[in-house]
Amino acid sequence: MNGEVIGGYLMPYQPLPVLAPEANPGWASLAKSAEAIRAEIEASGADLLLLFSTRWVSIIGHQMQADPNPEWWVVDEDFHEFGTLHYSLRMDPELATCYRDTARARGLHARTVAYHGFPLDIGTITTLRLINPDNRIPASVVSCNAYSDRAETLVLGKAAADAVRKTGRKAIAIGVTALSDRMFSRWIDPGEDRIHSQKDDEWNRKLLELLDDGRLEDVSQLAREFSRQANGDSRMKAIWWLAATMGQHNNYAGTVFDYQPVWGTGAAMVGLQPDERDAGDLEYDEDDAEFFHGDRNVLATQANE
Amino acid sequence: MSHPGRIVAGVLSPHPPHLIYASNPEQNEPRSSQAGAWNGLLDGYEKLRAELASVDYDVLIVHTPHWKTHTGHHFLGVPHFEGKSVDPVFPNLFRYNFRLDVDVELSEAIHDEAEAAGLSTRMMRNPEFRVDYGTITSCHLVHPALNKPVVAISSARTAFDYSNAAGDQEMLALGQATRRAIAATGRRALCLASNSLSHRHFTEEPEDPEDPAFEHAYNANQTAWDRHILALMRAGESRRIFDEMPDYTEQCVAETKDGCLSWLLAAMDFPTMAAKLHGYGTVIGTGNAVVSWNLDAAREEVGV
Ligand SMILES: [Fe+2]
To answer: What is the pTM (predicted TM-score) of this model?
Structure first.
């Protein structure tokens, strides 16, 4: 079978646009913008939503959700007073299993999880509520390893593309992530939400300018610097994963659907469609990897020699 | 005893769900092989429970790393919770059916004291909230009957969003607020810091997670730092631990970053008594110690 990744999106993880759109016009705008993304995905003929969520943190390698119908509810750790999100989702266990195998074939430690009552993360639940509320398209989500760096995350993205090809899916890849990830550490009046600092805002806009040009690989190359400057969410692993899953190039048509502050963080919705046009010179300053060789635990390695 | 409201004892009670898994309690769904990887820690908890058998307390107050709040310090404010807690990180080991009563009055009192001290605070009133597995695990291991009410305090992300030192300063204020609230409400409180010490994990797991052949410290740096901190505990140098905490947290990738131990030391007003080490061991590479400061026993000794 020859499946392919037919497009990609960035979605924010914060649940407030779903929990309380009426509390802030920016949050309402995000919920509204998601409708356009939903329509675009439905028109694409995709049969899989393939997610990487920075809110699902793993320690043991990489976990793929393989419960065909996870059902439970989640109350946000911070925003519990805005209510409860109940969910009943449609997942693609066959893809999850294949993804586990393709990840293992590239040296990664990977496993599927399917447990009654498993707490799906707030980013996955929020994103699927916004763009796939009726479960029309099956989804799959992989965790974000707390320790993985760029090379390991790229390998995980390439394994995702392998799994899509092998299973013959027409997949939409979705990185669930904030851009700048500095939340206000005090309780704010939702009406007064803004990006935490002007510097964060400027960095977010720079990134979005590149994404609007479809330059996903350039953004992937820039991710470390962005994280340093703007406290990028989970070191922007979602960008690394998305770029690797989508083929590591700049030839996309980019659309910034929305950009709003959510409790100080940069919440952006971006679409990327493969495009024939050449987006210009690439500068590859960063590492690349096809295979994962394990933790670089140098101190322990020396001790054992 | 002349102090009705007081901390009767403080405990460092780490929460690896592995320890629940290894003991196969009826509340937990998965069954372990009991191959013994974590026996040192399980023995430590057993010794701790034996010591606490002669300590009277009304309530457990637990500061937990696994309720992570960016908007300040949050407190459980619902009298009863029950449900199923599945660890998102180790779901193969921990799927635990819990029931928990909350001392809401004390919870509110700590909240109010913390707010008056200038901290950002929030009461958690949503009855559908899933109590975090750190709280459940530490409470279960310290007091398996779970028939006393609990106060759970979230881990504010100050150290993560700003700096370790800034986080510890907030924990100092939070600990002092906790102490005042306990005195004001007349509670005899057992305070639990739920964190591990060194906290770099292996990212792989053996076929049998409890295989003792696999279990060891992540590397020698982690062990050296842990030993240093434990030596200070046993020497009664809790103020010095607090002073060194930002460096320890940084250089040892320690779970003290989440603030529990700093909060506990401050709540106990930096005891100079020698702490008792009940057990130390590694869990998937991380360093964990079961340690108690039996403050009531120390008071008795000096006749206070
Ligand atoms: Fe932990």
So the answer is: 0.96
